[in-house]
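Need tokens for this chain, all 250 residues.
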Amino acid sequence: MEHENNTINLNPRHHTKRKQIKKIVKFLGEIILDAVVIIAMVVFIRSYLVAPFQVHGTSMCNTLNYTDGVCRTGYGEYLIISRLGYIVNSPERGDIVVFRPPGTDTFGKLESLFKTLLHMDGQEFFIKRVIGLPGETIDLKNGKVYVTNSTHPDGIKLDEPYLSAANQGNTLPLIPGKTKFVVPEGRYLVFGDNRQVSTDARSCFRSSMISGCRTDADAYIGLDRIEGRAWLVLFPLNKIGTLARPSYGL
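Here are the structure tokens for all 250 residues:
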């Protein structure tokens, strides 16, 4: 004969409470897991794919921060900068890049992200255009830029169609006598498009807020300082579009 086991719950309230606690723990666990996944995705995207950036200042006029015939001094376009390109390839001449100038600290990708998210960064980013590539010599002559490399050992003038009429022929040295830039391997030479006012390699990035180069080598930017290539304008709406790399025909 089979005997039936009868279980009597002497404390039904306690049993119900345990089930509720399990549900709450499961719910909280799912929230934490979702949060971890979202943070991991943000870290990956911001570190290796794309990141937002807002243009500030006049150094890239008339290409950026130029509206209704006026070069703006404050904040301008919202951009998306591409990080992936410089993981796969190297910067090219004409790229507009966002970077940390000499005289400021550099951080690892994860540390930099969390400092930005927590508004603890306190560092300044510059946006300029790549003019000189590793191993090249860049000369400033009569307000124009000349490139000497293996393809053009005698030097060739760089045609820069993105420069405004006021800046054409006005790429002048900002340090007396500093007209030649020999770009080291693994480094890049960058100038702003608004050559008359840009704080760039010609002044060794010295400004009222940035101490600039500690040595002459600091005038050239390495990949460790480059955050990415300015790729897409998101705002204002009338400027939405990609920032194309110019063709120099060199």
